[in-house]
Write a structure and sequence with these properties.
single chain; 396 residues; six-stranded mixed β-sheet; seven-stranded antiparallel β-sheet
C-alpha cells in the first residue's frame, strides 16, 4: 500500500518509506507535485534521485510533458524469453556461452559493422516505413542515420546487460531464461538532449523551481515535434531489444542445438503513454517504472549478482497502473567506485560468469537496493510470475 505525502497541488503517493528517500529526491518529488499541469504523481519503491525528476516516478500531466522527466535514454526497457532448456542443458564452460553472446551483440560504445538484416528479427515488420520516418526527425540528428542503423541490436554500457538466468523454485525450477536491458542508444540520447534544450528556453518555463522540469504544452509546434521524435525513439528502443533478443537466441542455439523459445516479454520503463484516469486524458511519464495494468507482464531486475522477477500487473489505478522498474540505486556510481574494489565485485558476483574488473565496479550489487524488499513493497501493484537468478551476465 502507498503512503500519501502532502504535495502542493496533488498528493505524492509513495510505495517507498518517505523516511528512507534522500532529501534531494524528496525535493524533486515536491517540485513535480507543484507543477501547474500535474494530474497525479506515484512513486515506486526503487525511487532515487535523478535529473529533474526522480528515477522511479510516474507523472501524469494534463496537456504537457517534461522531456527531462522522460530522460535521455528514451524507451529504455527490458525483454525476457523463457527457453526449453534447463540448467543441466547448459555447457559446463559458461565462459564460452558468454563469449558467444558478446560476439553476437556489440557492447559499450561498439556497434555492428553493417546493420543487422531485419529478416533475422522475427515478429517485427514495417522496417522501411520506420526508417523513412527518420527524415522527419529533428534536423540536428539527420547526419546520424547510418550510426543509428548500425546501433540497432547493440547493448550500450552503464546498467545495460544481457543475462542467462535460471528460474528459482516452483515446478519450473532450473528453467533457463534469457533477459536483456537496453534502450534507444545514441539516437535517443541525441533527440532527448535537443528537445530538453528547446524546452528550457520556452517562456512558460521561466519560473519553474528546476529548469530540468521544463515542459512542452499541447497545441504548440514544440510539443508536436517532441511527441513525433519521442514516439519514434520509443519504437527504436523496442526494435533494438527485439533485434538483440534474436541475436542472443541464435547465440544460445549455436551453443545448445535444439533449444526452443517462448514468445518474448518486453516492456519500456523510460517512456510516455497516452492514458485516461478519473475520466481525464493524460500523458503518463514512467521514468524508471513499468506499466502494470491488469494482466500486463513485466520485468523487474535486480543487479548483476542478485535475482530478477517476471511479474503480472494487478491494474492498481492509484499507481496509474505502474510498478517499479528494478531494484533502484542506493548509491551513485561515483560513490560506488570509491567504496568498492574489483575484489568486492568478484565476491558479490560469485557463481555468475561475468566481468569482475574495475570497469564495472559501479554496477556492484551493493550499490543497489535489495530487490526482494522492493518486490515486497508493491504486492498491491504486481504478482510474481517467476523468480530468476542469473548465471551469465554480459555488460558493456
Amino acid at each position: 500500500m502507498f503512503t500519501a505525502v502532502e504535495g502542493a497541488r496533488v498528493p505524492i503517493r509513495m510505495w517507498a518509506d518517505p523516511a528512507t528517500v534522500e532529501d534531494a529526491a524528496m525535493r524533486q518529488l515536491h517540485n513535480v507535485a507543484n507543477l501547474p499541469w500535474v494530474h497525479g504523481l506515484a512513486v515506486m519503491p526503487d525511487v532515487h534521485y535523478g535529473k529533474g525528476a526522480t528515477v522511479g516516478s510516474v507523472i501524469a500531466m494534463r496537456d504537457a510533458v517534461s522531456p527531462a522527466a522522460v530522460g535521455v535514454d528514451i524507451g529504455c526497457g527490458m525483454s525476457a524469453v523463457r527457453t526449453s532448456l534447463t540448467a543441466d542443458d547448459l555447457p559446463d564452460d559458461l565462459g564460452r556461452l558468454r563469449r558467444r553472446i558478446e560476439d553476437a551483440v556489440p557492447v559499450g560504445f561498439a556497434m555492428h559493422r553493417t546493420p543487422v538484416d531485419p529478416a533475422r528479427v522475427p515478429g517485427t515488420g514495417g522496417w522501411n516505413e520506420f526508417w523513412q520516418a527518420f527524415g522527419h526527425l529533428h534536423t540536428g540528428v539527420q547526419n546520424l542515420r547510418d550510426r543509428a542503423r548500425a546501433q540497432i541490436g547493440s547493448l550500450g554500457g552503464g546498467n545495460h546487460f544481457i543475462e542467462v538466468c535460471l528460474e528459482q523454485g516452483g515446478p519450473d525450477a532450473g528453467r533457463v531464461w534469457l533477459m536483456l536491458h537496453s534502450g534507444s542508444r545514441g539516437i535517443g540520447n541525441e533527440l532527448a538532449k535537443r528537445h530538453i534544450d528547446i524546452a528550457r528556453k520556452l517562456p512558460h518555463n521561466a519560473d519553474l523551481p528546476d529548469r530540468d522540469l521544463a515542459v512542452f504544452v499541447a497545441g504548440t509546434p514544440e510539443m508536436e515535434a517532441y511527441r513525433r521524435d519521442l514516439f519514434w525513439a520509443q519504437e527504436y528502443a523496442a526494435r533494438n531489444r527485439a533485434t538483440m533478443v534474436a541475436l542472443v537466441q541464435q547465440a544460445v542455439a549455436d551453443t545448445v542445438p535444439g533449444v526452443r523459445f517462448d514468445e518474448p516479454i518486453s516492456c519500456h520503463h523510460n517512456y510516455v503513454a497516452e492514458e485516461t484516469y478519473d475520466g481525464v486524458e493524460v500523458l503518463v511519464t514512467r521514468k524508471g517504472a513499468i506499466r502494470a495494468g491488469s494482466g500486463d507482464l513485466g520485468i523487474i531486475p535486480g543487479s548483476m549478482g542478485t535475482g530478477s522477477y517476471i511479474v503480472r500487473g494487478l491494474g492498481n489505478e492509484t499507481s496509474f497502473h505502474s510498478a517499479s522498474h528494478g531494484a533502484g540505486r542506493r548509491m551513485s556510481r561515483t560513490k560506488a567506485r570509491k567504496t568498492f574494489t574489483a575484489a568486492d565485485l568478484a565476491a558479490q558476483t560469485s557463481g555468475v560468469e561475468c566481468r569482475k574488473d574495475e570497469g564495472v565496479v559501479d554496477e556492484i550489487p551493493a550499490a543497489y537496493k535489495d530487490i526482494d524488499s522492493v518486490i515486497r513493497a508493491q504486492t498491491d501493484l504486481v504478482e510474481v510470475v517467476a523468480h530468476l537468478k542469473q548465471v551469465v551476465c554480459v555488460k558493456g
